[in-house]
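Dear support,

I submitted the protein below through the web form. The confirmation email said the job was done, but the results page showed an empty box. After a refresh the structure appeared. I'm attaching both so you can tell me whether what I see now is the final result or a partial one.
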Amino acid sequence: MTATEVLRGHRVVPVVVLDEPERADDLGAALVAGGLPVAEVTFRVPAAAAVLGRLAERGDLVVGAGTVLTTEQVDQAHGAGARFVVSPGLSADVVRRCQELGLPVIPGVSTATELMQALTLGLDTVKFFPAEACGGLGAVKALAAAFPQVRFVPTGGITAETAPTYLAHRAVAAVGGSWMVAPDLLAGGRWDEVEARCATTVAALAPSATPTSVAQGAPA
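What the results page shows now:
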């Protein structure tokens, strides 16, 4: 299964930084109730694998591992039940280990050279990172024109206001963002607000919604 197939139907991926496994159940419930049953748990904190495992055990979420830098972390993520892996950059070792495990991988790229390396590794879906700092949607359009076979998952600086604009482009498979799972919300256990922001995001991305309707939710 490819990364695009795993994410099919999930056009916004909440990027989660959580170091408290005991909060994972409440987080998962809020994501599901808000209509965004998907999460990228970043391996920036010691308990990331445990958090990922708790979310994966629920069975009603598509859970992946983010900020994966090494093959050892790939193995940790796989063992915890990750359905996909996301890296901030392009590591051939990380990609190949994921391929060995049959684990869809979305490496980060920001240049045409990195995209060509990704294609050489047999990939057709990449993370464009850091999206806003590297030129935003304009850069995605330029890269997509040269590489029409590639799908992009822009992440980094994406907000509730800008997400619909990215998602309107044919080459964008999904976007990653943290406005609905902001660190202060998770730290404060504000699960109702997490659910509300997820629901607002989902409603704004409905076919009849306008881009400005996303902004009615709280900002990132």
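Response: this is the final, complete result; the empty box was a page-load delay. The first helix runs from residue 3 to 7.
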